[in-house]
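User: Please predict the structure of the protein below. I'd like the answer in structure-token form so I can feed it into my own downstream comparison script.

Assistant: Understood. Taking the following sequence of 578 residues as input:
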Amino acid sequence: MCGILGGINTDFDDASLRRLHHRGPDQSRLVTLDVPEYGIVTLGQTRLNIVDRRDIDLPVRIGDKYILFNGEIYNHPELRSELAAFGWSFQTNTDSEVALAAYLQWGPDCLQRFNGMFALAVWDGKRFFCARDRMGKKPFFYRLGQSTFEFASEIKAFSHLEFTTHELFELFEFCFNEHTLYRGILALRPAHYLLYDLPKGTCYTRSYWDIEQPVGRRITDGKTAVNSFLELLEDAVRLRLRADVPVSLFLAGGLDSSIIAKLSGVEEAFTCQFDEFKDSINEEQYVRDLALRLGIRTHFVRPTRGQFLHDLGLMSYHLEMPTGSFSVFPLYRLAKACHERGFKVALTGEGSDELFAGYARNELLLGETRRSDDPKRSHYSAMLDRYDGGDLDRFCRMASRSGLIGAGLMKMFLTDHWSARKSMLENICYLESRVFLQPLLQMADRMCMANSVEGRCPFLDYRLVEFAFSLDDSLRYRDGVGKWIVHRAAEKLLPKGSLVLHRPIKDGLPTPVNLWMHGTHSFDRKHWNALMTAECIKSLMVRPAQPERPHTASIEHVLLPEMPRVLDPELTLGSAIR
């Protein structure tokens, strides 16, 4: 895991790289290369040495080709062997060097071979090739000028920031795809690569992967599906245990992290339990029961109001953009405890609810009996659809926090992601996985990396993602309950009698912020995003080399420079922040 920055004719300097120190405190280096006729190329990297713990030459290079790499390619040993057969030799044991050789061997097609989470940039002497992993776990931001191109792992590395707003953020309470809250700064979309070509003076992005609708028969047999699910998840966990350091786990009192605990065999885990919720949302009783059965040493993190007030500025500094979730605080405290125990890697259960229809809001939607074999309902279906709304209308009404007006506007942003050829469940799981998961991954990455901890998500192995969308709907949702296949897998895998197998309702990571600030037990977030937006603006305007407590500063306003010629409409239509 690392922090990266670079580009052509940038404003980046040593101070810029120090602002990414938390992403890689073990090593760092900034180099500049003179490129005649075009200017100065900057390449900077910080390193968290999880694979190959020796100090290595940074940036990693092969000949005069360089790579800046953030993340992990879990199948790098297999790729190393495959590349060795083509004659490649390696100076390090890192996955970064394997990724560079893979690009030089196969070009952009190398991305199809990677199983991992990553954001990378290759400089080959004439062009930058940049890419982001399929699900968007690792961040990559960039800014284009008339003769400049800048990119970085986090927005705080850029100079001359101007905070702005966007209708999308007001509706969703988070940003996704290319959108950010900083003028002129774009995010590279998940599962996309970018090519910035100096001789041609062009920049374009391309998608290299998506969740495809399967053609032909789906998996319908429950026993076969459960066995395949466990086989895939076990291998995903095995790959994510590859590290030259010990691996821990964020263990909640639910099925997802419990399954990972069993498959991984980790010895230590970290659980968040708010004392304010001990009588209503009690994770501790389920975790203690499972930990005793599996022999796991569990550390209980009990965040307090005082810690929240102390951490708020620093969390905002690392978050950079609000995500519409209270969970930022418990995640930050979990990662902090993990780091203080000496761990650099933690497994998490992120992604299961999105892939397998686990959210209560979607269970309620899918459970509505809007259609039946009643001849009258069938005859007047068009009229009833106007009354009930289509499936996307109903989803937006459920997801909108701005009432019916907000639901109508939200539909405009989501229509292109909704297909009439897919069932409602398929569409919901697609939206959850490709849109609503993005801010959760942003939050997890920033809060873990703020504490120099790498979070790994076995459920987001792309093979498991594709498997989820090959299932018949009845294997994800049945009898009013989502995650049917996950429940059956847990029953097969976990010790008999485990309390978690019989837990009726599992909450996420709620935080008693409203209780602390307003004296109410409500989870309403209408004031939360306003608070976090103000804190993000305030904290990012100061440039501490290694931030401890950000302070208030004014915003420096700059004009957005003229954009270079762009070949991909994704970068021109709907992507500029106004």
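That's the full token string. Residues 185 and 277 are 40 Å apart (CA to CA).
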